[in-house]
Predict the structure of tRNA(Met) cytidine acetyltransferase.
Amino acid sequence: MRGLILACVSPSKIESIRHTLLSNEQSLIDTRELPQQFSKTQFQKLLGQETQGIIFDARDSFDSNLFTGLNGSLVGGGIMIIDLPPITMHFLKSLLPAQLHSSTEMNLEKNSAALIQSLPIEALLKRFLKFATTRKSAAIIVDDKTYFFPPLSQQTPSVDLAIKEQQAIVGQMCRVAMGHAKRPLVLTAPRGRGKSSALGLAATRLIAEPNKTILITAPSLSNLNSFYQHLKMPANTHVSHTTKNNVVCSNGSSVVFMPVDQIIQQPPQANLLIVDEAAAIPVQQLDLLARQYNRIIFSTTSEGYEGNGKGFEVRFKEKLLKIMPQTRFAALNLPIRWSSEDQLEKIIYSTFLLAYPVKACRFNASYSQTHIKELTKKLLNEDDYTLAQVFSLLVNAHYQTRPNDLERLLSDPRLAVYGLCSSDNGADQKTANNDSNSSHIIGVCLVRTEGELSDESIDKLYQGKRESKGELLPQSIVLNYGVTSLARRKIARVMRIAIIPEMQNQGFGSLFLEKLETCLSADQFELIGASFAVDDKVLGFWIKNHYALFRFGNAKESSSGSFTSEVLKPLQTGRETKLVTDFESLQSKFVDSFLFKVSRQLKSLETKVVYLTLKTIALSLGKNKAISESFDLSEIKRFINKQSHLSNVDFQIARWYLSWLIENHQLTFKKDRDGLIIELIFKGLDWHDIRLSQSLTGKKQIISTIRDELKIMLTKLNE
């Protein structure tokens, strides 16, 4: 078992506790010694360690991401000391059982109960202290008084079952390399289960065979510390040489590390590719790796500091099964670093709602049975069942949801939480009993209040002197387009929206947005928008609900591997014409920007996304009569008839294609028509990239194909 000490004492007393419980020979991580700002690489390196003691500084703030991550570094028999701020003293005492109080203390706590509950203590720190004292699994030291001290086991309990589980997984890993091809393994595990060490043990077994190359990658080399610690030379060989974590054996076998992007650009030959912490790698990159290698192990932490979002589960596993239907899935469940009955892990899982599943929906809801409800901070802080429903839904729907996101959910005054609720008599009784209103949450939306910036803030933004924290949409509008009037408006930014899996793709997301817009409009919001990692499905959802694109990021985000997209929609159009005028000005500037950037900064934007964007641009231009209804098609016809070169008519094709999209907006994307025109005319890709994308032989066939497609389009136009 691991020990937990909650200490609300002076700094000198913390040192005394440390020297009493931890010897100088025992390893220690002391977060008081960390710099205030440290890089992601430093963060990952810190969390890759194993330690026998942790002093966690919570005096100034309680960093939930760091705290949950360090939990995985503390070995069995280790001790975690939390250095608490003085303001928690009376709150801590109020949580203790009555028998541990003196009569004087009991009267004081009773008379001050309301005041104690209103103390400005961070929401997640409060939750953690409540769960720690409820489980009676912590020593509580206030000043010089120790209120409760459970016995600490200084040895990790037997891990025989966990080791057997790990050995079975190692066997599966080796079969990926030695057995049938195109049967990759996807391994998931919470922290402390020996996932990375299992990879090291499997690699050790494989390089015992001669001339085997094991290629390994991860988001960062520091993710692989445990892997290299467990990578040992087989008895029948020795290390020939090592270079930057590349190990070459005397039998010709080797273990080679390469960053993900390098593997994708120049894939080396390998008998096995290992991808560790795969959930932290963009899905698009994982998809490319799966198409390049027939023998792969994808390994990832299922929850913890990496972010416990299920984007990896939801998005990538589905793609992988399409590429290789015989993919195998496995999990490590039993902890190796500590006991399966470890109380510290249970407290952390309860506090931060880690691994809380989305409950299956057992009722049939119709649109008429739904209503929107704001889930207040008070409700979420007091009703753990509702909070768990909300957070698990967000975790399930999004790529990365970190513990600090839960803190914002509970305490950020500018972040509102809305639920799409359904009352249905057919719901199972257990679910109904947990909700006093017999109302079931089928969707969750996080909305942040932005805008209403002062003239001074707007001027500083406009001049590039200062960025406004937490004002993503108004800041983007001012910095990129200079439409300062919109930054003065009251703006609602949809940060996340999610529907339970069983009711997705049935129109409930659009219904939720419609109800949300009505609600926000009544609260005097003038604009609603969103920012998201773009793909054609997500963008299609927002366009379908009449949101207008107004910006793409200039480069792909490292976390998602996608471009960021921003959309906006006016809510008060019937009341004020100036809002409409300013909004149309923003749209016009976006059109000019996009048509210029699509062949430059946005050249690698997904072709289907470009298609959807061009379609919205065309409809907007057509509505404003910016595209002439009649075209002189003679030059395009000359090109079709091989009487003119593409370079003579490319700009005319681009302009006519926008007009064609207006007339044919009901048609869906066609790769060899829309894809080819976009990649050749709008994006300006080189012949090699187009050949690969369109599966054509070269320039001659590309030109021939676009002539054929244009001829078909013109023929249908004349029908």
User: Anything to note?
Assistant: The two ends are 78 Å apart (CA to CA). The chain has 30 helices and 21 strands. Confidence is low (pLDDT under 50) at residues 153-157, 304-309, 425-437.
